[in-house]
Amino acid sequence: PAAAGAPPSAALVWWCPSLCASLRGALRAGVRRRGRSGRESGACAAAEGAGASGDGSTRERREEEQAPSPARRRRATQMVLVSYLASSLSERSFLFGLPVVLATAPDSFSAIAFVAFVTSLFTFVCGPAAGHVLDRLPRFYGLVSCLLVQAAAIVVALVATYNLFASPTVQPLKHAPLYPLLLAASCVERLAAIVSDVAYERDWLVQLAGREDQAALAEVNATVRRLDLACEIIGPLVFGVVLASFGPLSAMGMCALGAALILPMQIALLVGARAFAGPLLTRKKRKKRRRAASSKAALKEEEEAGGRVRRALVRTAGKPVAALTKGWKIYLAQPVLAASLAYVMLHFNTCLSPSSLLSAYLSESGVSVAANALFRGSSAAMGFIATILFPVFVARRGVLATGSAALVFMAGMVTLAGVTYGLFLEGAASGGATVPLGVFLACVMCSRFGLWLYEMANLQIHQTAISERQMGSVSMTEMSLCSLSELVMFACASALESSFALMVLVSSLSVVAACGIFVRWERSVDRGELRVRAAS
């Protein structure tokens, strides 16, 4: 350094050669780094070219190295199942609690029936578009968006109901100022609940269990059905106890608080499952990529794709007709259309199942409330037995043969129940045909075993035969048709109030038709072709 008191020119003379030497050293280091990176990129490009020209073994080896271990996959599956349990518990409590609380308001029957009608109609109209949006969104953000919308709709609906009952004078439901808000929230909640169930059952769990592992898929599907049945029992039971002990306002507050508190836990579980599964839960792009991304790169790409949520929603809102028709086109072109139509036909069976119509008939026939509850509980027990035996049947006979056997058994039981009703129960006095009524109820109860078996078989058929890019559209269109079938049957029940025998006949014929459609398709289908089309 220049001595103290030296002129500035002396310091400049000293610093210039030093600065030039530093710049020369940096330039040489940069050239060396660029040469090294160029040689490495050239080697990578040559390796990729060789892999592309060969049989792709290098890419497959990379994917195998990136795949999570069985222990991490099992942990991710458990997290997703717990998240599904929380979602199903919240949904079942809301579906049971809202009509029960609204029924205490004056002149509420027609208002509750109108809510059910509009909800089914809204699901039928908007279901295909919702499935199409789900297919276009990243897997994580699509499911989280559905859970957020569902929780918000539950809170809004219960706040509107709370406002109705908190007023000093409870007015008729249809004249309440927040009744339109309650109606809209119910429609949105039902649609979001169906979409989230589709995402859980037909997308997330399929990716974790493996599309080709039939035994693992059967075990996961049986577990999902058992959780659903448990929530169907526990949710209404807890809500009923709170309602009887503390009143409707406390019960609705508990339901809304539970939905709000469960949501962060669900999201945390999904985040943990995505961390354990790695790229297994990353939705693949339509365009082929040259290089396989690592686990961290795949997760980063999924996070950066969060902006696609807003863009996809905007595009769908801007083209509503195209979004509605796209789902129907994909549904009609699916390779397992016959299996789906058979499942839809089963929803026309509203009188030979533990439904509100059959409960009303049993009450008019003099059956006690305890006996009616025992019948519904026994029907649920048949569902639990079906979930236990389904993996055994699939391991021994295959999923298609299991579906055929389930529908044949169900059609036989339903036909026997219809014949028993037509010969002994039609026109019989109340309490005058105890034995035929017991045979009738036993046949209906046993038919639930075949229904649950086929429901799981149909789920697994779609999981293995439908591409993940079209799973949302196909599943939501199927759910829309199921809502339409139930809507048609309840409308017929309202129009044919005094003709329960005709409703029994229609229910029997719908199950027999579903059995004929699926059995004929099962004998002619090519198993290998289904797997090839799903992989493509």
Features:
mainly alpha, 536 residues
Summarize the structure.
By secondary structure, the protein is mainly alpha-helical. It has 19 helices and no strands.
Q: Would you mind describing this structure in some detail?
A:
The protein has 536 residues and is an all-alpha fold. Helices cover 82% and strands 0% of the residues. The protein is built from 19 helices and no strands. The chain has helices spanning 8-53, 57-66, 70-102, 109-136, 139-166, 179-209, 214-246, 248-277, 295-304, 307-318, 320-332, 337-346, 356-364, 369-397, 399-425, 434-465, 471-495, 500-524, 527-535. Helix 5 packs antiparallel against helix 8, helix 7 packs antiparallel against helix 8 and helix 15 packs antiparallel against helix 18. The longest helix is centred in the N-terminal third of the chain and has 46 residues, at 8-53. The chain is globular and about 70 Å long. Mean pLDDT is 80; it is low at 1-20, 29-56 and 285-295.
Write the layout of secondary structure elements.
Layout: H1 8-53, H2 57-66, H3 70-102, H4 109-136, H5 139-166, H6 179-209, H7 214-246, H8 248-277, H9 295-304, H10 307-318, H11 320-332, H12 337-346, H13 356-364, H14 369-397, H15 399-425, H16 434-465, H17 471-495, H18 500-524, H19 527-535
Helix pairs in contact: 3-5, 3-6, 3-7, 3-8, 4-6, 4-11, 4-17, 5-6, 5-8, 6-7, 6-16, 6-17, 7-8, 7-14, 7-16, 11-17, 12-16, 12-17, 12-18, 14-15, 14-16, 15-16, 15-18
